[in-house]
Specification:
Blueprint lengths: L4 E2 L6 E5 L7 E9 L5 E5 L1 E4 L4 E5 L10 E11 L4 E3 L3 E6 L5
Parallel strand pairs: 1-9
Antiparallel strand pairs: 2-6, 3-4, 3-7, 5-6, 7-8, 7-9
Amino acid sequence: MSGKIFVGQTKLTIKADLSADITGASVVLIKYVKPNKEVGSFTAEVENEFNGIIKYIVQLDSDIDVAGDWCLWAHVTFADGKTIAGETVSLKVHKEGKC
């Protein structure tokens, strides 16, 4: 991702790269911890199953709703219950109009 991200922004796609084959994934998530410590996830879609690239296209202005440092990571579950997770990355979210 490049450029600044702002609270309420909806023209945004969040991508994660697991660098692993996720063919047969049954649950594809991008999990997060918000700056206020709220934990949750976005239901993502597979962009490239062989390379393990997933994405979430932000839908609502309430999806990115807290300014500060977010922690995000990919998490995939397969039909047999096995899971794989990606590295955690930090995403800085800014308040619009604030220097």
